[in-house]
Amino acid sequence: MIFPQKDQSKKSESFISNDEKQVVIGKGFDDTLSIDEQLREWLTGRMLLFDELPFPVEYIEQQIRLGFCTSYHGIERKGNHYICNRCKNTDLSLFSPFPCARCQKECVYCRSCLMMGRVSECTPLVTWSGLEISFSYPNSLHWKGGLSPSQKEASEKIINVIKNGGDLLLWAVCGAGKTEMLFEGIAHGLERGKRIAIATPRADVVLELTPRIKQAFPDVPVISLYGGSEDRHRFAPLVITTTHQLLRFERAFDVMIIDEVDAFPFSADEMLQKAAEKAKKKDGSLIFLTATPEEKWQRECISGKRNCVILPARYHRHRIPIPKFHWCGNWKGAIQKGRIPQSILVWFRKRLEMGKQAFIFFPEIQWMERALPLFQHYAPEIEAVHSEDPQRKEKVQKFREGNIPILLTTTILERGVTIPNIDVAVVGAESEIFTESALVQIAGRVGRSPQFPTGDITFFHYGKTRAMIRARNQLLRMNREARRKGLIDD
Amino acid sequence: MDIYEKNRCFLCQGNIKREISWVGFFLNQGEFYLCEKCEKKLEKIRGEKCSLCSRPMEKLPAKFKKEAICYDCYLWEKEEKWRGVLEKNISLYVYNEFMAELIARFKYRGDYVLAKIFAADIKGVLQRNEFDLIVPIPLSNERLFERGFNQAEALAREAGMHPVSILSRIHSEKQAKKSRQERIHLPEVFSVTNPIQVKEKTVLLIDDIYTTGSTLRHAAYVLKKAGAKRVQSLTIARG
Ligand SMILES: [Zn+2]
Ligand SMILES: [Zn+2]
Ligand SMILES: [Zn+2]
Ligand SMILES: [Zn+2]
């Protein structure tokens, strides 16, 4: 029997033998599992709507009566305030009443998490309250690479937090090898039966990360969750997910790793921060990874208020290229008149002549598209890409293969995309969209591979901004720190 | 002097900063639910349109027109059973990509408040025309439970109307997938629950989209049969 007796202590031995357990976890949702086992797979650590559970309502209600599941009100009223129990929204402007056909009353629903299925006052949210699935995966790490001494140091700190709880900020420059530093900590947690989530704001990062994690932990069930993912009903000790999908979890993870904390929309969206908090177990560990923490966090790190480990150097032991500032005048005016500002033109034609590939960032699609023909005049193979471009993937692939000499882009290529030997320019670096963190990320595209560790990064601007200066200072400080610690050779 | 209203856009959550003229202010038209950027993506039906179903006809090739009406309407009107059943359909907006998304969010995701976006437009139509009864196209009970509200009824209510539910569904909503021939010759989809209420009345049917016109015509047919004097319809989008 899969459900424990009510009086059974939570500390008791796993009720599935070790061998059986591996099978259950590995198989996921299938017909060979009993309905009880299926429900447990669906619901462990999750908080779902009845509509999200493909079981007869009577069956779930029975399980609630028996105490294996618990149901909560979707929305609770507290005086004049409301709280959504799924997304923890309390902003009154994001609640609204409607005449509800289900409860036949004026029923308040949450607009904040609407896209995941409407939660209203009469919507029950169901969680699992039976015995948890327990597991242990000793020696799960099959990664054969090695860590540099500074990576090793960070890795030790991660292990420590995973062991003892608490939080840690891993502030590592682009190209420091963040993912590899997590491996030992993850292996450590899996051996001790800790459930681990790696959450990131972007679905493409989930897709990119999943095969790398699966390769490092080939015997551990890994699921990846994003809108439309097929893994959503499965239980796995290791979950790679968008921050959005964390809304469907509650007190699920012993270890919550949040990658790219600075990236949109996590830093912008309070809801997702609350979701991450909710998905983590109370005494769990919280690890943030970032190349560019927000200002407040930077100060806390430097003053020692925040548990933090800084990796100022890339794994290839070369310094990070420092952005040059270049005034380019009223570039919008120039483009409007059908010409590329002189300084940008010189930079760009030099890259064409050398045959060196480059990204040129623009603050807005509209200006990028106006500029495109002006650039194509010099080389028709030049392309432009933005977030709503259906050919986005194909174009990046073509660029990778060397078939596009220069790629104009909006901030969508600011992170994630790593190309061995490129130069980078930012046009209109004064724009608000180029925050300190965006500029650090953009600069981080240059000099990534050990074969080509240098490159040019130029910010063309119509007036320097604080963000530009802070970004440059941040990178200068990292290089200084790296030199002091003997982490770079040049 | 300008008065600015600061609200969040229903769709993009951006701030709404719009100038409200004094005239608008006193007429109480000061409520905006969309930011300017989102509102611009709504495309009002303007210019030449089918006098029967509101289908925009400017870009329509000549073979799809029959004088003042579109070819679809011509085919409906050709059949005796359907002739004059639906006197006229008024649609407000073009069913473009943005509208498709908006309607999907409204009725499938169940974002009830979005009905407010159209309240002023719907009120406008009612100021120009008079009807005895406002009747939303009903959902089956199963659908209604699933969605939690009837989108047609929501549109009417939020516009300050008092819709009456005198239609009920005999068949489920699945007919949308059938071919035109099948749809036309389908046995009745709706029935009138209280025929006395309909006698000699002018009726305005409300729905979210006019796509083939089949749903509205089936509803109009049973209303006429029950004794309604005239039946027109109002939809926010013309598919
Ligand atoms: Zn919510
Ligand atoms: Zn309700
Ligand atoms: Zn908007
Ligand atoms: Zn027509």
Automatic annotation (TrEMBL), chain A:
InterPro entries (alphabetical): Helicase/UvrB_N, Helicase_ATP-bd, Helicase_C-like, P-loop_NTPase
Pfam families: Helicase_C (PF00271), ResIII (PF04851)
Keyword Lyase annotated: no
Transmembrane stretches, start-end: none
Domain of life according to the entry: Bacteria
Keywords: ATP-binding, DNA-binding, Helicase, Hydrolase, Nucleotide-binding
Any single GO BP term: DNA recombination
Keyword ATP-binding assigned: yes
GO molecular function annotations of the record: 3'-5' DNA helicase activity; ATP binding; DNA binding; hydrolase activity
Domain Helicase C-terminal, chain residue ranges per copy: 333-490
Entries under PANTHER family matching the protein: COMF OPERON PROTEIN 1, PRIMOSOMAL PROTEIN N
Protein name: DEAD/DEAH box helicase
Source organism (scientific name): Fervidibacillus halotolerans
Automatic annotation (TrEMBL), chain B:
Taxonomic placement: Bacteria, Bacillati, Bacillota, Bacilli, Bacillales
Coiled coil: none
Family, similarity comment: Belongs to the ComF/GntX family.
InterPro entries found in the cross-reference section: ComF/GntX_DNA_util-trans, PRTase-like, PRTase_dom
Domain Phosphoribosyltransferase intervals: 147-237
Any Pfam family hit: Pribosyltran
Protein name per the record: ComF family protein
